[in-house]
Amino acid sequence: MTRGPRRATVKDVAALAGVSPKTVSNVVTGTVFVRPDTREKVLAAVEELRFVPNLSARSLRNGRTGVIALALPDLATAFSADMLHRVVQVAHERGMAVLIEETAAEPQREYDLVSRAREHQIDGLILNPIRLKDSIVVHDDQLPPVVLIGEVEQHKVDRVLIDSRQAGYEVTAHLLERGAKRVAVLGGETGATDATATSIQRLEGHHRALRDHGIEPDPAIEVYFQEWSMVGGAAAAEELLSRDAGFDAIMAFTDSIAFGAMHVLQEHGLSVPGDVLVSGFDDVEHARFMNPSLTTVALDRRAFAEAAVDLLMTRIEDRATPPRAVAVPHELVIRGSTTR
Amino acid sequence: MTRGPRRATVKDVAALAGVSPKTVSNVVTGTVFVRPDTREKVLAAVEELRFVPNLSARSLRNGRTGVIALALPDLATAFSADMLHRVVQVAHERGMAVLIEETAAEPQREYDLVSRAREHQIDGLILNPIRLKDSIVVHDDQLPPVVLIGEVEQHKVDRVLIDSRQAGYEVTAHLLERGAKRVAVLGGETGATDATATSIQRLEGHHRALRDHGIEPDPAIEVYFQEWSMVGGAAAAEELLSRDAGFDAIMAFTDSIAFGAMHVLQEHGLSVPGDVLVSGFDDVEHARFMNPSLTTVALDRRAFAEAAVDLLMTRIEDRATPPRAVAVPHELVIRGSTTR
DNA sequence: GCACACTTTTACATCGATGTAATGAGCCTG
DNA sequence: CAGGCTCATTACATCGATGTAAAAGTGTGC
User: Fold this and answer.
1) Cα radius of gyration (chain A)
2) Which bases of strand D have any atom within 7 Å of the beta carbon of a protein residue?
3) pTM of the complete model beyond 0.90
4) Gap from A76 CA to chain B (nearest CA, Å)
5) Is B187 left (phi over 0), alpha (psi -120 to 50) or beta?
6) Band (A134; pLDDT cuts 50, 70, 90)
7) Which of strand C's nucleotides are less than 7 A from any protein C-beta?
8) Taking burial as the number of CB atoms within 10 A of a residue's CB, which of A327, A335, B113, B321 is the most buried?
9) Contacts of B50 in chain A (CB under 8 A)
């Protein structure tokens, strides 16, 4: 292995500037006042040697790495991509770097991350769980600073969420108001044993809205499945069509699912919104550009990312405060897929 | 600031197992043979104390962090998201963690990353540059291990690319074969002064194909712009329409651009592929699910990511070998947007 | 001109893991 | 059973930055 030239260290800078290593450190970190002329000398030496402090050494000393991890189920989905984009921006503004983890391939990984986050030498973790429940016994005193995003049945840790029941209610009410009589659901099913919290809550809101409009939920037009992607949505739509149970609207639990479903509907010669109304969740950028554009539930992503990062940073500062939950407001965005 | 309980260190494990710290280290890293019974004792102690080695300390000692950075222009685009997804997977398989950077907001950041990567304490950097040219004088001996992805006019560093001239040629030839007479270009323009290498190469291929078919390129139907996203593509399509120069096909330089353009065309009452043929580049997942589905240039993303990570890892091992360029094969995928 | 208070800088130890070189244990041979 | 030879294990120093406590320097007031 060939290495580049040896990096300059505080010692080298100190020697060149004619001061002690600690003074260099004081100048660089700025935590201690240094007389202006000394400071100048040091900065000149730093410049000349192109000195950059060694973060490993620094974090070994002070126990912080300045790195947070973001763990998402599937990085390739539009929702994840957008979330990532925001979180990275906010984190950088707060002087933190972001390390990426992907969990969908191995659900076990979520547990590993929470229970063994320390291995990765990160200050904290933002996790969008799909499997994580209260049932995981994580020794409280060993829990790394964690913020969960998305609806979660977990009350030991900080979390950022939207009111999924309410959102599910609003979407369904909207579809019914636009004339739908039989609203199919892609992503949630009555009695699905391994359903995620998100799925359960959206379905609850959906059911409540149906009943408020005098309609009894019909499990025959509810399809639960794990893979909330376009491919998954397409498969679920095929499944729904094959059940031949009749429906005039589809409430998809993510935009990606909706895209997959719309594609299948159109392949089968069904028109959206002519024959079937379709709605999504998340308001990813594509929703606006689809044909027809997709009615969906939007949330303030920037606010969401800020809440997540800020919760995490305060948690890193103080591991003792009780867990908090921040709800980010959502909004139904009505577009072409439910407008005829 | 409240901290959790102190982490166990090699020392603690050593004390519990009744051996020296170095032996614990030997067991954990597995680099030195340890007698089976000793090994057992140590592993038991590791288990009991839930010992996890401190990576900061380890990397301080051996100069490696096991972290590579991936810097992309805009994390929210489908192409970036997919690239990220693959790179993270491959990197994990190789035992590396991935740190994320986003560069579009501040082009200056690309230079910072290349010239000051050391600050971030990463072993290497995979960069998808938009601005980086040969002109940047980076002192060779200070260059961190870098792999550039995408077409780049940079010959001092490793890179992974596709043959963009050839791909541009193939797409144009396809559009012409499908009956197009006036192929508009979104993403490249003759004489654009700040054009990226990608843009220039795709445009060159396009021009060559036109001339091979006896058509002279017309700058009036070439639109160059910086933001290669759906929003950018939509704006470019509006610009193209407003020029009123006549066109019966659009060759977009990314799928996102194509999506934005298709949306605008359809808003203006133009049918794809009826009135206008449309093609993209990248074959992001949405291309398959659009209506109509999008003809585009696919590349083996997995192979692309593997090439990038592997180039980087060998570069980290040996900084002396001359720069290499790996070309990943591409393939024209013909779909609904050019099939009438 | 000197003592005292205060500011700036320094020497040293430390964070945790691991490479190096030396020590000790175990085995074989004569 | 002593001497030599492996092989496993250990003590110690080191990676680079920084907290601590002590030393050096500066300035003020009498």
Assistant:
1) 25
2) 7-12, 14-20
3) no
4) 5
5) left
6) very low
7) 7-12, 14-20
8) B113
9) 142
